[in-house]
Design goal:
alpha/beta, TIM Barrel, two-stranded antiparallel sheet, 32% helix, globular, binds iron/sulfur cluster
Length: 342
């Protein structure tokens, strides 16, 4: 493998996050295992104190303190999205060589130890619910997102199957930027689809796609469209996630284009949310690029009306997000069953 400035090789074998970057990530409270990352999100920490839950709890019934957010490709991504609040300045766009990545079980075992260390710090504060802290050590839900693009990890099917084999697992969510349609096909072919698959959908035309996602691949638009066209055939729950950024993709003229796109793609749900002015994105965008909840609601109502097949299902004011449901592919919104395949 030709090694970039962002990664080094350990024992000439496994891809590792470079020590200087790992140091910065650890300072920002990330746990690290080889090329993978884990963190406790804002809402997980709040739920320890019973101060609120993530919108995924409200929309789909996911336990916030039982959710583990991690990425098997913490510093790899094919895009450089303007709104990314992760440390994308250090991202590596190189493919991950299957011979140089850690095995799923090894990654998860190490990340669990990292997560435990992060959680241990919360036991000292009596405002945190001890039972919730104990429960959070054995996650019931996995959000495969965090930093980087998880579909670049070549053993993703094995990883998802491994997660589904764990006794405590109830559900898995995977968020993709759509740049690896072959991997999505593999997940389907190898019976390794997550419980819910998200496709980031921030542009309805090529010009804004390039401006927002700043992709590295020359055929990025084709790749993304191929992933989009696969959604209605996948044997799992699917979501389009639209992040609206003022003056980038919130313009009125785009609503009919988005409506036509979502009608054709026909996912089960669409989440429409505001860009959040946090993390590293504050170096690239202004606070004023965020939308008010009222604007998110208007946009969502227009998209649902013009698509003719979606209707607004719920919203979370605090997270500035609406969720639309597909009336032609109605499914139970709450994740009902355990996926454990044991
Ligand atoms: S695709 Fe995701 S991880 Fe990659 S740059 Fe965009 S927001 Fe960040």
């Amino acid at each position: 493998m030709s090694c970039s400035a962002e990664t080094v090789e350990e024992d000439d074998r496994l891809i590792q996050i470079k020590p200087a970057i790992a140091k910065q990530l650890k300072k920002a409270k990330y746990g690290i295992a080889d090329h993978a990352t884990v963190a406790l999100c804002h809402w997980t920490k709040k739920s320890f104190k019973h101060e609120g839950d993530c919108y995924k709890h409200k929309f789909y019934g996911i336990s916030t303190h039982g959710c583990m957010e991690f990425s098997p490709a913490g510093m790899h991504c094919e895009n450089r999205c303007v709104y990314c609040w992760r440390p994308m300045e250090f991202y590596d766009s190189l493919k991950m060589d299957p011979k140089q990545v850690a095995e799923p079980e090894v990654i998860l075992t190490k990340l669990m130890i990292e997560r435990k260390e992060l959680i241990n710090g919360y036991y000292g504060d009596s405002r945190n619910d001890k039972q919730r802290l104990d429960e959070s050590l054995l996650p019931s839900h996995y959000s495969i997102s965090l930093s980087g693009e998880p579909t670049m990890y070549p053993k993703l099917p094995e990883l998802i199957k491994y997660l589904h084999s764990l006794k405590a697992t109830k559900s898995t969510f995977l968020v993709t930027n759509g740049q690896e349609p072959d991997m999505i096909q593999r997940l389907q072919d190898e019976d390794a689809l997550p419980t819910q698959l998200y496709l980031s959908t921030n542009a309805a035309d090529y010009e804004s796609f390039k401006r927002i996602n700043r992709p590295k691949y020359d055929d990025s638009w084709e790749r993304w469209n191929r992933t989009l066209s696969m959604l209605k055939h996948l044997k799992t729950r699917t979501v389009l996630r639209i992040t609206l950024i003022r003056d980038y993709n919130d313009i009125k003229e785009m609503i009919p284009v988005f409506a036509e796109m979502v009608r054709k793609a026909s996912p089960h749900f669409i989440e429409i949310k505001s860009y959040m002015h946090i993390g590293r994105s504050t170096n690239r965008l202004e606070h004023s690029n965020m939308l008010e909840m009222e604007e998110i609601k208007n946009f969502s109502e227009q998209v649902s009306k013009q698509s003719k097949i979606f209707s607004v299902m719920d919203e979370s004011f605090v997270s500035r997000i609406s969720v639309l449901q597909n009336n032609e592919r109605l499914i139970e919104r709450y994740i009902p069953t355990c996926v454990n395949t044991n």
